[in-house]
Amino acid sequence: MGVLDEAFIQAPEHRPKTHLTNSGDYILSNEIPTIDLSSLQDPHCDKTALAAEIAEACMRWGFFQVINHGLSLDLMRRVEKTVADFFSLTLEEKRRVKRDEVNPMGYHDGEHTKNVRDWKEIFDFFLQDSTTVPATTEPEDTELRKLTNPWPQNPSDFREVCQEYAREVEKLAFKLLELISISLGLPGDRLTGYFKDQTSFLRFNHYPPCPNPELALGVGRHADAGVITVLAQDSVGGLQVSRRSDGQWFSVKPNPDAFIINIGNCMQVWTNDKYWSAEHRVVVNSSKERFSMPFFLFPSHDTNIEPLKELISEDNPPCYKKYNWGKFFAARNRSDYKKLQTESIQIDRFKAA
Ligand code: OGA
Ligand code: NI
C-alpha cells in the first residue's frame, strides 16, 4: 500500500500509542479473560460453570478468549496459508473479485471506519453461498435480493478450505451462543430461531507494514454490529480493546491457537445493555504484516432487534427501540463503502429516549 495518503490519517485524539513497549512487552495486556472450553468435548457436561464465566466476561469486557475450542489447529494453519497466498497475488488479480455497490462480498482495499481509511485489505464471503438481504435501505421497500460469493480462481484450494473453515467456526459460534443464552438464564436454544436465513460472513484482514504506524490504524475504533464475533489472529498482535469501566485501551496478547470472542451490538440490545459491545481497534506496525480472520455471526435479514422480553421489567425498561437487522446491514454496507459526510450508523440512534 506504499506511502501514507492523507485519507489514512487519524485525528490526533484517535492516534494510537504503539502496542509494544521498548523492550517488546505488550502494553497493559492479558486483561481480557481466557475461558477453557475443553469440558464441552463431553456432550453431557454441565454448562452452568462455563456460562457463569462467560456472563462475567460479557458484562465486564464484552471480550474474552477461548482455548481448547474444538477446531482443528491443522485446519486453522491451512486456511491461514491459503489466505496469505491470496493476498500475495497482484492487485489486478485480486480486483477480479472486488466488491461493488450491489455485492458487499469479495476483495476490498478501501474500507473506511468513521470516515478515515483503514490500513488494510480484506476479503469477505457469506457463510451461505446465497444470502438474502434487502435490495435497498428504504424502510418501506420490501424488495429482497439474493447475493452469491465471488470466489477467486487462485489459490486453487481457496474456496474449499475457506468453506470448510467457515463451517467449523460456525459450529463454535453456535456453541457460544448457547452458552450465552444459558448465562442469561434463558433456554440454550432461545436465540437460534433468529438465524434461519443468517447473513453471517467471514472476513480475512491483511494489514501490511505501515510507514507511519503512529498516524494510522489498521481498523479505526468501532464496535461490531452483529451478535458475536469469533476472531482468529496470527502471532503479530495489534488488537486493542476499550475497557467498559473507563474506556482505557488494552492490547490483546495474540495466541494463534485461540479465538477472541466479542459481543456485538445486537447482543447488547437483546440484553438491554447487560452485555457490552466493546469498542476495539487495530494498531499497525512498520515491520510486520498481520493477518486476522473474524467470523461475524449475523441474524436473518427479517430479524427485528430489540431487548428480549424475558430480560426487561418495570425496573429494567427497554433501553432501545426496535430496528430491522436487514435494513441496518444494508445501511452499514453503504456507509463502509464510501466516505460519507456523516458518521456511519450506530446503535445509539436506537436508544430509547
Ligand atoms: C474487525 C476487527 C480485529 C483484528 O475486522 O471488525 O475488529 O484484530 N478486527 O483484525
Ligand atoms: Ni471489529
UniProtKB/TrEMBL annotation:
InterPro entries: DIOX_N, IPNS-like_FE2OG_OXY, IPNS-like_sf, Oxoglu/Fe-dep_dioxygenase_dom, Plant_2OG-oxidoreductases. It comes from the Eukaryota. This is Fe2OG dioxygenase domain-containing protein. Keywords: Iron, Metal-binding, Oxidoreductase. GO terms for molecular function: metal ion binding; oxidoreductase activity. It comes from Brassica oleracea var. oleracea. It holds the Pfam family 2OG-FeII_Oxy. The keyword Metal-binding applies. Residues 198-299 form the Fe2OG dioxygenase domain. PROSITE patterns: FE2OG_OXY. The keyword Methyltransferase does not apply. Belongs to the iron/ascorbate-dependent oxidoreductase family.
